[in-house]
Amino acid sequence: MWGKRLAALALIIAAFVVGYFADIRVAFKKTFPFAVVSVNMATYRLGLDLNGGTHLVYQADTSKLSAADASDAMTALRDVIERRVNLFGVAEPLVQVEKGGLVGGGEDRLIVELPGVTNVAAAIQLIGQTPVLEFKLVDDTVANQIRALQGTASTTAATQKQIQDLEQKLFIDTGLNGRFLTRAVADFNQQTGEPEVVLTFNSEGQSLFAKITKGNIGKTLAIFLDGQPISSPVIKEEITGGTAVISGGFKIDQAKTLARDLNYGALPVSIKLESTETIGPSLGENALAAGLRSGIIAYLIIALFLIIWYRLPGLMASLSLLFYVSLNLFIFKFLVTLTSAGIAGFILSIGMAVDANILIFERMKEELRRGRALQDAIKEGFARAWTSIRDSNLSSIITAIILYWFASTSLIQGFAFVFFIGVITSMFTAIVVSRTLLMAIGAKGESKLSKFLFGSGFLKAKNPQL
Fold first, then answer.
1. Could you say which architecture CATH assigns to the domain 133-266?
2. Cα(214)–Cα(175) distance, rounded to whole angstroms?
3. 263 CB neighbour count, 10 Å cutoff
4. Which CATH number does the domain 2-46+280-459 belong to among 1.20.1640.10, 1.10.287.610, 1.10.10.10, 3.30.750.24?
């Protein structure tokens, strides 16, 4: 018996330790309600809806890409923007892709959320106009036609229009762009001493670059940055090393800036700001306060029901729920960015934790009806309830995983992730914490006090020892 009580004491101490690191504080007062429990949410990572900030939506031009290429390009775009946002130290930014359809068609969007940044202009500046890097071959036939028209004695309006139409066909897209870039370095040309930028491609880009140079020796490969040609080198031989050089009469500062911008984000596709939304800190604070208040009310109602109907087992279940709340807050502090949807998932998982306790208590009553002693009924009740608890929680876990995997928004993912954590911890608190606390009490079942403490539901059990 003392071993069980020591185990219960260890759990209680662990609850206080977990609560301390979860920043749960209790302030005692001289008047009712005697103590106020609070959580220092300033130490938690809060999402945009709770902390305030800026929500940006960018339209990505994927109209010229296939469905597979569009998906790869948007993934690369997300990674690039995320690196650029992180560079400026924004706390817990969220950058995600929103698909506009099953095929490429220019409907893909990039969602950027910057918690704590309420200045829209500053937020847009953080994203910046990162350079779009492209490599295009010059069509020699079209180039010759343009030169012939430009060399005529008199250039009429019709001739000028013809030249403009040809210029739109002058460059052929090779498919090689900033998505394949590994790094860019500012350097000096060994022969001329002029600053230049050396580009290094990844393995896929290296293979594509070698293929382009091998099949187009003697042709011009123009390098475009943000739609403007900045260098037009002639391919002299096949280049298998996966490097390219941009030389355009740079000054050293310009070369360094270009290399820095390319490293921080050479966009695989162009983007255009579509909409902005600012959430004020006061709205976030109100949402957070409402979520916490809902959680407290939910816990109090559940605890009241458990204690009234199950009495001592209900009280033990309520205490295990407190351990459950502390454990979850501890996990949230270090692993989760809390949103209003996440808080909703957490409150829902409290119901799952209670459901497990009710299953256990009902199994205990069944064992008491069969004539078992109270301690044996507690042990058997937990053992027999485990299968039902395991299966029900396993289905909830699978649902949470599927919901997270196929979620199209961060709010749904936040809900699913928090709900997943809550279900896992609810199984632990129901099976381990509640059982340890009940077994540590040491009630025998023969006394009138035991009959009272184990509630109306247990008194109805036809047990000769109660």
1. 2-Layer Sandwich (3.30)
2. 15
3. 15
4. 1.20.1640.10
Judged against a pLDDT cut of 50, whether residue 103 lies above it is answered with no
At 173 the three-state DSSP class reads: strand
Amino acid at 302: I
**pLDDT at res. 233:** 81
The pLDDT of residue 278 is: 76
Question: How is 30-92 classified by DSSP, letter by letter?
Answer: SSTTSEEEEE-GGGSEE-HHHH-EEEEEEEE--TTS-HHHHHHHHHHHHHHHHHHHHHTT-SS
In Å, how far are 64, 109, 147, 275 from 137, measured between CA atoms?
Answer: 17, 29, 17, 35
What beta strand segments (E) does 189-303 contain?
195-201, 221-225, 228-231, 243-246, 271-279
- Fold agreement between 2-46+280-459 and 133-266: no
Report whether the peptide linkage leading into residue 268 is cis, meaning its omega lies within 30 degrees of zero: no
Strand-pair partners of 273? 58
User: What are 332's two structure tokens?
Assistant: 């949230």
Range 365-373 contact pairs with CB under 8 angstroms and sequence separation of 24 or more = 365/457, 365/458, 365/460, 365/461, 368/458, 368/461, 368/463, 368/466, 369/461, 369/462, 369/463, 371/463, 371/464, 371/465, 372/463, 373/444, 373/445, 373/465
Strand, coil or helix: what is 466? coil
Average model confidence (pLDDT) across the chain: 76
253, 254, 255, 257: CA torsion to nearest 10: 80
Residue ranges covered by each domain of the chain: 2-46+280-459, 53-130+273-278, 133-266
Q: What is the CATH number of domain 53-130+273-278?
A: 3.30.70.3220
pLDDT in tens, 110-133: 888 887 776 777 777 767 656 678
**Residue 450 CB contacts under 8 Å (≥ 6 apart), including other chains:** 374, 443, 444, 466
- Helices in 128-156 by DSSP H: which ranges? 140-150
SS3 (DSSP) at 465:
coil
Q: Distance (Å, rounded) from C-alpha 144 to C-alpha 155?
A: 16
Q: What's at 60, amino acid-wise?
A: A
For residues 161 and 98, give the distance between their C-alpha atoms in angstroms, rounded to a whole number.
40
Over 80: is that where the pLDDT of 13 sits? no
Structure confidence at residue 357 (pLDDT):
80
- Are 404 and 416 in contact by the 8 Å Cβ rule? The answer is yes
Percent of the chain with pLDDT over 70: 74
